[in-house]
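We now fix the convention by which a protein and its fold are recorded. Here is one such record, which you should read through line by line:

>
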Amino acid sequence: MRTNRRGVALILVLSLLVVLGAIAAEVGRTARLEFGIVESVRSRTVARYAAESGIVAAVVRIDSLLRDAATPHDRAAVFRDLDAQLASLTDVTLGDARFGVATTDLNARIDLNRSEPDIVRAFFGQFTHDQQAEIITTSLQARPLERIGELAALPGVDDALALAVMPYVTVWGDGLVNINSAPEPVLAASLGQDVARGIVGRRAAGEIFTASAPEQTQSLQVTIAPAPPAALVLTEPTRLLIIARGWRQGSPLTHEIQAVYAVTGGRLVLQVWQERDL
């Protein structure tokens, strides 16, 4: 009888140990899960604030450059060499976080919503046949895009065409074209192929166009005389896109902020702010 009692007690003890082990394993699993959640939240927070720091740093730097630009030529030169001016912000360490910044002159692109239909039609005509360019232009007039990613869903636009034109288009511009930064396809749509080729050649030779130089303005007006009446050109951007990506070192999560600024009165004014995790 005593032996049986000892056996039962042993079984009870072993059962209790198994239960306690299972509880301990569950507690450990829950603790690891909660730790992972906490680390993920921390990484996301660090990444976001790192990206925001990148935007702030870029705006401060650009505002400073514009304050120091005494003439229209100096201002145009700032924007022409903006990537070089912001090179120190391409990879910045901030505690256990890092961020990188890039900028895009939106006036170097065709605004698909605000450019005149003739310009949009002429632009797409460089990449496809006239009938398809007309279909795309009509579609854009009927349904403006909210995001540039919607371009591939438009009638007349396939994936290959969307990929080809993506570096030259935006939906965050104002319909104006910066002749100091716009690539040849953008200039050609606004000013004609021959004029575009001439401007690109003059830029390659080191020329910077400014509205304040009478002899240069006269030369430019002669050059663009055959341009469509709807073509509106300028010599420095009025819309600037700043993209900042931040991440916590050792974490795969990256946070991206896209901020569009209007360049008015020598300073940047926020227009659009979008964020996403990558």
Summary: Residues 109 and 168 are 5 Å apart (CA to CA). The first helix runs from residue 2 to 68.
